[in-house]
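From the shared-data thread, chain only:
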Amino acid sequence: MKKTMKKTDENAVIGIVTAILIVGLIVIVISIIQVVYVPIIMEQREAEHMDKVAEQFGFITSVIDNQANYGKKGIPIASFVTLGSKELPLLVSSKAYGTLEVLENSSAITIQNNTITNIFPFGMIKYSSTNAYYLDQSYIYEGGAMIVSQYQGNKMMVSPGFFVDYNWTNSTVNLSFDVVNVSSIGLKTIATGYGIYGLQTEYNYTSTNMFFMDVRNITINSHFSSAWFVFINSLLRDAGLNSETNPSQFVLTDLGQSLELNFSSNLTVNMNLKIIEIQVQVGPGWIK
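Structure, as C-alpha cells:
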C-alpha cells in the first residue's frame, strides 16, 4: 500500500513538473515572438503603410494637376489617405498614427528686379506619420510638387510646372512657373488618427499671366528647400546654365528654410508666373 501511494505521488510530481516546463516553454516562445518578431513584423507593416501613403499622395498630385490644367469649377474630387495602421491582435504592439492637414500660406515665392519686389504666398497639403517602429516620413504637396521628407532630408518625387529656357546666343533666360496654391475651405483642415480620411479638392481660379522683366533674384521660402534646390539646379543645368563652369551666370543657395537664386547682370532674365488656386477640405462632405 505504501509503495502504491509513493508511486502515485511521484507521478503527480512528474505531471506538475511537466506542466510547468510546458508553460515555461510557451512563455519563452511567446517572449521570443514578442521581443524579436513583433518589431520586425510591425516595422514591415509600417513600411508598407508608408508606401501606400506615397501611392495615395501620388494620386492626389495627379488629381490636383488635372484640375489645375482643365480649370473647371464646381467639380470637387475626393481622394483618400490612410493615416495609420493597427496593432497586431493578441500580441503587445503599438498603432501607427498620422496627421493630414492643409497649411495655408506656408510657403512663398519672391521675384525681384531692379525696381520692385513681388511676393506670392502659397499653401500645401501635408501628411506626417507617427510610427512606432519604422522611420517617420512626411509627404507634401507644395506649389505643384510632391515631396517626401525624412529626418535625413527631403526629396522631390513629382516636379512642379517650372520650366527654364536659355538662349545662349543673346544670353536670355526665360522662366515659367505655374504655382499651385492650395487653400482650405470651411474649418475642416486637419485629421489625426489611423483610419482612412477623405480629401476633397476643387479648382477655384487661375490668375492672369504675370510677366516680369530683368529678374535679378528669385527666392522660394519653403521648409523643404533642399528638394527645391536639387530640382531647380537640375533645371538650370539641363537648360545649359552651369554655376560651376560659369559662376558668373547665377548663384543658387540653400539657406535651410529658403532658396535663393541670384542671376548675373550679364544675363537677361524674364519670368512668366501664374497662380492656380485649388480649394481643399479634409474629411467627408463639401462646404460651400
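The radius of gyration is 29 Å.
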